[in-house]
Design brief:
The chain folds into 2 domains: about 100 residues, no CATH class; about 90 residues, no CATH class. Helices cover about 65% and strands about 0% of the residues. The chain is globular, with a radius of gyration of 21 Å.
């Protein structure tokens, strides 16, 4: 009878590495990652799991095992569409979309290059515009988004001609949207904008930033 050869486990739980990451993600996202018992209901419903190679349950598992580098450098963080299917299916109501939002912020704070730069630019432009008006203003939002993309393209040797060609393409699209009344010039603000500004100030304060 052949002896079974048992290889060492690939996963090694090291509390001194995992606990700080668990605590940071839990505090900042408001999600109890330790409540996950890997039932994989979230994985079955995630619309981008097949594309990213990482499903919500696997992301939480990486957090619990303290794999900080892998947690901050995976496509799920950047491709998550925040559909909240994961949280709806989760028996313990863990919203991985909120965890992904937290991981985006942490990546930005520690200056990790985003895996999908245009998603990061979209994210930053959306938040900036919302902080100004309490809602997204299309013209400001698209302007900020394109400026970020152009700056990155020039930084990485894209050249002025390529940037100008892209800008012309987006300008043409913008004009078409204005004609169809899908983009507006008016700068409307919500009532009690000061409350939104307080929320924006409160978030980094509570996160320690």
């Amino acid at each position: 009878m052949k002896e079974l050869c048992v290889s060492p486990s690939v996963l090694q739980f090291q509390p001194e590495l995992s606990q700080p990451l668990i605590q940071e993600v839990t505090d900042r996202s408001g999600q109890n990652v330790l409540a996950c018992y890997q039932c994989r209901r979230c994985a079955a419903g995630c619309p981008v799991g097949n594309e990213t190679g990482v499903t919500p349950d696997r992301l939480i598992r990486m957090i619990i095992f303290g794999e900080r580098e892998e947690v901050l450098n995976n496509l799920l963080v950047w491709k998550c569409v925040a559909c909240y299917t994961c949280g709806t299916r989760c028996p313990n109501n863990i919203q991985t979309a909120r965890i992904n939002e937290t991981l985006k912020q942490i990546s930005k704070e520690v200056h990790i290059e985003p895996l999908l730069p245009k998603v990061a630019a979209f994210h930053d432009a959306f938040l900036k515009s919302t902080s100004h008006f309490g809602r997204v203003n299309e013209l400001e939002f698209m302007g900020l988004y394109e400026m970020r993309n152009a700056k990155r393209a020039l930084k990485h040797g894209g050249g002025w001609k390529a940037v100008a060609a892209q800008m012309r393409g987006y300008a043409k699209l913008g004009i078409s949207m204005i004609k169809k009344k899908r983009m507006h010039f008016r700068l409307s603000r919500i009532k009690r904008l000061s409350e939104i500004k307080r929320l924006y100030k409160k978030a980094p304060d509570e996160a320690g930033g």
